[in-house]
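Quick question: what would this complex look like in 3D?
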Amino acid sequence: MQNISASTRNRDLVMLGIFTAVVLTAPLWGGLIGAGYPDLLQKFAIFGLFAVGYNILFGLTGYLSFGHAAFLGIGSYTTVWSFKLLSMNALPAVMFSVIMAGLFSLVIGFLSLRRTGIYFSILTLAFAQMSYNLAYSVLTPITNGETGLRVLNDDPRVIDNALGIQIEGSPLGTLFGMELTGWNGFYFCAVMLILGFWLSIKIFRSPFGLKLVAIKSNQTRMSYTGFNTQPYLLSAFVISGMYAGLAGSLMAIVDPLAGAERMQWTASGEVVLMTILGGLGTLIGPILGAATIKYFENIFSAINEQVLQNAFSFLPDWLNSFFVFITNPFVGEGWHLTLGALFMLVVIFLPGGLMQGVSHLSRMIKGKGSADADKGDA
Amino acid sequence: MSNILDISNVNKTFGGLHALSDINLKVEEGTIHAIIGPNGAGKSTLLNCCIGRLIPDTGTVTFNGHNMVGMNPYDINHAGMVRVFQTPEIFADLTLHQNVMIPALSKRDGTFKFNPFADIRAEKDIQEQARQVLEDIGLGPLADHHAGNISRGDKRRLELAMGLIQHPKLLLLDEPTAGMARHDTNKTIELLQKIKERGMTKIIIEHDMHVVFSLADRISVLAQGRIIATGSPEEIKVDPRVKEAYLGEETEE
Amino acid sequence: MDAIVLQILNGLDKGGAYALIALGLTLVFGTLGVVNFAHGALFMLGAFVAVSVEGLLTLSKRVKDESITFFDAYKETPYLELWWGDTGSMIIDYSVPISILIAVPVMLLIGLAMERGLVRHFYKRDHADQILVTFGLAIVIQEIIKANFGANPIPIGAPEIVSGSADIGAILGLEGVVYPWWRLIYLAFSLSIIGGVFAFLQFTTFGMVVRAGMHDRQMVGLLGINIQRRFTIVFGLAAVVAGLAGVMYTPILPPDYHMGMDFLVLSFVVVVVGGMGSLGGAVAAGFLLGILQSFFSMNEVKQYLPGIDQIIIYLIAVVILLVRPKGLMGRD
């Protein structure tokens, strides 16, 4: 963990300020990098939130969970049910989703944390698969199984009907009358992201956060130093579970649909990659990682063979075919292949993620040699 | 002076190996009590039984009137019994300053405190306390270095600092000068003598007889899992059983 | 009663697959200390060796269909049939057994390559890193297969001669219990591979060193034995076992690109239930969980507890992990 005393509270405020400014003005500068539309920016915010929360568990304590996609799914389902039963208003939806995700992560976390290391990871894996199977085929009255859960025009929506609020057209999440779609949807997500980021700064700078990092460094020692590590780990687990629930809720708010495939353990793999790509245990890293992954997913998925051929058209035919041949598997539907390869590359060559690269660069620029010198903290 | 620690009738076997047999040992409050003995005598096992790392098969370990056997390590720590590890088990990823703050936080916050909204940089008292202890022990300049990067000798001193900052009633030191050069050994003796004045009880496991005879008020000799002699340094020096256990050797490192 | 026997047999089949995969996982974890999330992919690769062999054997060309006389008709006829007539057809029919022979060297090479190229660099790194990098590898392998073979399951048939069912009931004195020959063969096959592995470990010097290494890796290294080469071979062995399990399983379950991940999760659960580091435990737990899963998918049971078959394995794993952390037979 970086040297806390070097980063003063003022620096944190500045960082938060810059972050807020960058996020809230994203619709303006997004277009410059080809990311200027609401759907994509919403994804940056949603997965950024998911990754920030996940980082609080994996980054700070080192416990690798495969179960967090399940909490994402629970968030989505709860939100859709809130839309169906109570109101299209996003606030109760968010609130209930976070609470539900918190409850589930409390139970799953409590059980999984009876063990450590690989056994913990496999327990979370088992729970994730269980949740997925339950959602897919067993609890279909609640989840609507394979088809996914949608909001229908004739749903009860008790609160809305009492207040005389009707839906016109297809149901969309609202914030007191304002439909949360397009840029409105983005700003709602962005505000949540900023709040989530602020909270993570608080956690990182607190005694609680320091103790979590110490647990990662030497858990048995913590025990002999007088700390009961269980409640600390469980707190981190539940907090990260609630972040996941919030992310899932936002997903369903901007697109009122909930499906079981979000809960598969392999979906948890994506958030792990985002976190380590950005920089495990850093503040900004996870958000950076999430945005990077979603950004390139957007680009790569849209490329097809034709595009590649055009790109390489300046080459002679046989070279053109060769390059198209070797790049084709990585684009379009092959995005998952790229993701898997990226996973491997990051773990093998850059375990500290992008933030490690950034701090290398800044050290080179500053010209400092000692690894013990004051490290900038982000 | 009462006995702060009363080890009574402790036995511990591993498979067929009798690591500890019928251990009876009383430690007076405020004294420095050394435990010596040849390698494999069971000294570390005894220590582990005190702090909760091992559970003895029989017997009690009464500390301040309470039996510690079966208690969680973190509760034993809060009862006032703190161990300084032989192989440094510091937090390698944290700075020295942070390393020392952790035990201080434990002392203040107890076994669990959920305070994610407090700011550790604003905790002036803890920050100062930690810096002071590092200064006292001579590690002041290294306070902001990562603990994984310092020398082994410095790690041992950090271990000691981490133990001291909790103001334990009983400090258990496991070979505090093992592998140290003469210069460092003397510094450690000085340090431990300085703390002697504060009234803290200490149990020291040691091989270095120079250290033992400089510091100890009482000495117990452990051989093959049994205590073969307990007494003042003068008594132990001339005890024939002790000489026999060591085969006539007085090791001076 | 016959329903129960049927379910037991069903369970033993699946259990055999679990046991074989779990066996390989445990070998690798026990000797190398590596958690290999790409192990399921090895199972899948074995299955796709069978797919490839079948594809190769049935390379066809358009040939005039002589049997249709009143207009010119053409059909795709395999080269082998064209060249060798009936013998050719027979070769194609036996594609799965032929795949077994081809799979052994292929899987061995893949396993060796995986160990030398990737896994060995991760011995010293912590389990989380091992999991992540092998997870990434598993995804890469899976996607390559998907790109080349498509997303749909590819049915592969067992040889004609064993494509029918055996009347087991007759042996046990029960009415109407028939069970496919090939599945019985699979059961016998998995048991013999398991037996072979155990015999190898028990009765050869190499096996003895491996077992010693599973007990205490440091010690063996200190004794001056070149443990590294043995590790590589063990990894290759585990890959072959997983691959063969996959090859033989193709007539039972048409291979598709994500079968690796599906079986991997269950196999890890099996390993943990059996006790990580215990080969016997992995095998026993594999069969046990296979049978349990089979039983809980019986209609009679599903009536009372709908969907229980999907989650029963995980429930049991959770209970065992919490109640008996070492697993059934573990010693880690």
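Answer marked as accepted. Chain B is about 35% helix and 25% strand.
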